[in-house]
Every structure is written in structure tokens, then in C-alpha cells.
User: Which sequence fits this backbone?
């Protein structure tokens, strides 16, 4: 009788454990998963990417980029390897950043101080500048310039 009771208790514990593991997660965790999954997207369909994206952003003045002349000189421009979704549209992310070295004895670590973040829509027809002073994600639209290209583009001419 004790063996049967022990088996029933073990089965009840196993059922409860599986039920707890399969229960729904809180909404907050679902939002995080969706954000993470949607933030990892390819830039294959983007018209402007890599060096062209950097050249485009570097073609703007310090004032247009919201950078001081001093910050502009020490900043490096880098392109994110994955696309970003803002208001339902896909963008290439270009960051103006300064690499800082930190030494702790024999260990050296690096951090990046982002001075500006810029987003080029995949079709190249809209550019956003992130408000770096705001704690919220706020963007202002920048005037779109011609792309200084490092690759050959298909060009149609009117005669």
C-alpha cells in the first residue's frame, strides 16, 4: 500500500511540474521576446547599407548630425549588422561612437560612448536622427541627401 501511495504522489508531482512549465508567461516577457526577435533582421533588401550608409551619414554637417566639431573629429561611424524596426518600418542603424579604453591592472576593457544614432530606411527615402538627450526613443527626420556611393547603382536618365 505504501508503494502505491508513493507512486501516486510521484505522478502527482510530475504532473504539477509539467503543468507549471507549460503555463503562460507574463505579458512583460512576451514583449521582450517579440522585441528581441524583431530586432534581429537581415539587411539584404536594403538599398543603402555598409560603407554607403556610413558615407551618407558622414556627408551631413556637424550641426545636422547634432555633434560638436570636437565630437565629430573623435567619433567613428559604424553600421549595425542587423536592421532595426521603427514604427513598423525597417531601417539600417549607423552609430557615431567613441571607443574608450579602461585598464585594470593587466586587464584592458573597452566601452563605446554613442554620440549619435541615425537610421536610414531600407528604401533610402527617409533618415531619422535619435534624440540622444531624451530617455525615451524620440526621432527627428533629417533631409535626405543623394547617396555618396561606393558601389555601382542602377541609374535611369531622362533624355
Assistant:
Amino acid at each position: 500500500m505504501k508503494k502505491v501511495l508513493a507512486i501516486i504522489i510521484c505522478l502527482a508531482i510530475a504532473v504539477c511540474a509539467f503543468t507549471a512549465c507549460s503555463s503562460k508567461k507574463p505579458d512583460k516577457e512576451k514583449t521582450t521576446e517579440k522585441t528581441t526577435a524583431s530586432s534581429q533582421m537581415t539587411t539584404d533588401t536594403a538599398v543603402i547599407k555598409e560603407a554607403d550608409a556610413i558615407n551618407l551619414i558622414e556627408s551631413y554637417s556637424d550641426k545636422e548630425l547634432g555633434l560638436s566639431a570636437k565630437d565629430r573629429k573623435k567619433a567613428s561611424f559604424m553600421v549595425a549588422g542587423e536592421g532595426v524596426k521603427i514604427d513598423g518600418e525597417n531601417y539600417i542603424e549607423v552609430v557615431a561612437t567613441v571607443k574608450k579604453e579602461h585598464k585594470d591592472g593587466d586587464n584592458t576593457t573597452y566601452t563605446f560612448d554613442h554620440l549619435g544614432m541615425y537610421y536610414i530606411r531600407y528604401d533610402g527615402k527617409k533618415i531619422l536622427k535619435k534624440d540622444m538627450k531624451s530617455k525615451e526613443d524620440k526621432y527627428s527626420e533629417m533631409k535626405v541627401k543623394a547617396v555618396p556611393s561606393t558601389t555601382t547603382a542602377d541609374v535611369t536618365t531622362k533624355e
About this structure: The helical segments are 2-22, 27-39, 50-58, 62-65, 69-74. Residues 25-39, 152-159 have pLDDT under 50 and may be disordered. Residues 2-22 form the longest helix (21 residues). The chain is about 35% helix and 30% strand.
